[in-house]
Amino acid sequence: MLEPEQVLHIRQGTPTEAHYRLKQKLGQTAGRQTWLAEDLAAQPPELVVIKLLAFGDQVQWDDLKLFEREAQVLRQLKHSQIPKYRDYFSIDDRLLWFGLVQDHISGASLKQLIAGGQHFSERQVRQMAANLLHLLIYLHELSPPVLHRDIKPSNLILGKDNYIYLIDFGAVQDKAAAEGSTFTVVGTYGYAPMEQFGGRAVAASDLYALGATLIHLLTGVSPAELPQKDLQIQFADRVSLDPDFVWWVAKLVQPDVAKRFQTARQALGALRSLEASKASPLSISSQQPDPSRERSPALQRERAIVPHFDTRIQLHQTADELLIQVPGANPWNLLYLIPVAIGLAIFGQIWAPVMASMSWQFGNTLFFFLPIVLLIAASTYWDFLPTYVQFTPEKFAIYKSPFGFSLTMIQGSNAEIHNIFHTLRAFRAGKQTYEKRVVTIQTYSSESFFAKGFSWDECNWLVKVIKEWLRMT
Question: What residue stretches are annotated with the Protein kinase domain (predicted)?
């Protein structure tokens, strides 16, 4: 019997020894328990969530296989909206327990919020939808793809940081499962599509579950309790929403998998296009393009965006592009070349007699100094080149144009952008460290920065314009 304050001793006497103190039981079903616990190996102890499976009469081999698969998949996932995997273990405490440990997310599930009477606006639901689609893009585009197969309000945590976290990968399907001869039927009635109960889950199956979850948030009623017509969930008469958004949600929950959006990336693109079509043509945020529509002449013309303060940064946008030109180093920086030139002159004066005594000819002397001079010249030329940051409907790129040729330094997909912000960043020059403000594009796998050394106002302005153009605000 597991009790609060009980300490689980895992792998005692080994280099990977772990101790967990149980604090509060979060849930219990037949053969399963979920506990809030403390990881005593961390200093100070850190809160974790432990899922425990008791292998016995109520738990079959298929249950254990799903539990082990969840641990294997979570060990490989690296995403800020999936609680971090910590440990997988087994203990013998009169029963054989298998345990899975993850980071604890401070917040409440969407199911708890709905039960508590919280209502979600259309804007909030749109933001959650976009947030979860980014997460599904990550999961579905892994190699092999990962299908969650049980997206629903109880498996979505709204953290205190206002991000949505996806939990409970117990129904996850990966390539290993898909290649087997049999399938374990999983899912929750009302949220899982028909093809999933037939063992044929695809990426669009997770999109159906997402759509059903959005319907629950919008109506406050479980989709299992809503009427259906030809297997289609009927919810439009219970909400007052933008008709295009109703169409978009309804497309997510089409009974026929072929009539749904086929990928999370496709669904996100449609959502962004829908929002762009509703914005005013005079606003910055209206510039998010809709590839399926003809552009008006006003939107096709390029427009410069000018802030209320002086800046050397230039921004230009059309309906299909946002281009930022960040100027290179200030001309006054050329002064730093004076001590370099003096140093080279002194170096030459000292070494010229030595070279002459070694019968070095002028050509050899020039060959000795030429690489140093060219390296300094190239570095100086590069610093003085402007940096271009380009956003199109699908991707972004950071590049320079030496001698008229575009040289891309960084590029990525807009769908992978997790956040855009400005902050102070530490740089090193020799043995000294200094800080400069930069604008950072944070994706789920890396960070890229530009506008090094510009003011707080300039960086804040850049972040605001980019987020509005990408519809991230």
Answer: 20-274
- For 395, half-sphere exposure in the C-beta direction (CA atoms, 13 angstrom radius) is 7
- Which residues belong to the active site? 150
- The rounded distance, in Å, linking the Cα atoms of 130 and 109 is 18
CA-based nearest residue to 132, from 79, 210, 184, 67: 210
Separation of CA 241 from chain center: 28
Identity at 120, one-letter amino acid code: F
User: Residue 429 is which amino acid?
Assistant: A
Return the biggest CA–CA distance within the chain: 99
pLDDT at 248: 95
- Cβ neighbours around 229 below 10 Å, total: 7
In the prediction, which pLDDT does 252 show? 96
Mean pLDDT (the chain) is 79
pLDDT confidence bin for 368, thresholds 50/70/90: low
Residue appearing with tokens 């006054």: 332
CA distance 168 to 187: 12
Spatial distance between the Cα atoms of 16 and 18, rounded to a whole number of angstroms: 6
Sign of the Cα torsion 21, 25, 26, 30 reads positive
The pLDDT tens digits for 237-251 are: 999 998 999 999 999
Could you give the residue ranges of the DSSP H alpha helices within 315-409? 337-357, 362-384
pLDDT at 301 over 50: no
User: Would you state the torsion angle of the CA atoms of residues 198, 66, 104, 116, taken in this order, to the nearest 10 degrees?
Assistant: 40
Question: Are 155 and 210 spatial neighbours (Cβ–Cβ below 8 Å)?
Answer: no
Q: In the block, which residue shows the tokens 């008469």?
A: 237
In DSSP terms, 425 is beta-bridged to: 436
Which is higher by pLDDT, 302 or 308?
Answer: 308
pLDDT, tens digit, for every residue of 127-183? 899 889 999 999 999 988 999 989 999 999 998 877 889 998 877 765 444 444 345
Please name every residue paired with 441 in a beta bridge, in sequence order, or none if there are none: 420, 448
| 291, 273 Cβ separation under 8 angstroms | yes
Distance CA 171, CA 163 (A): 23
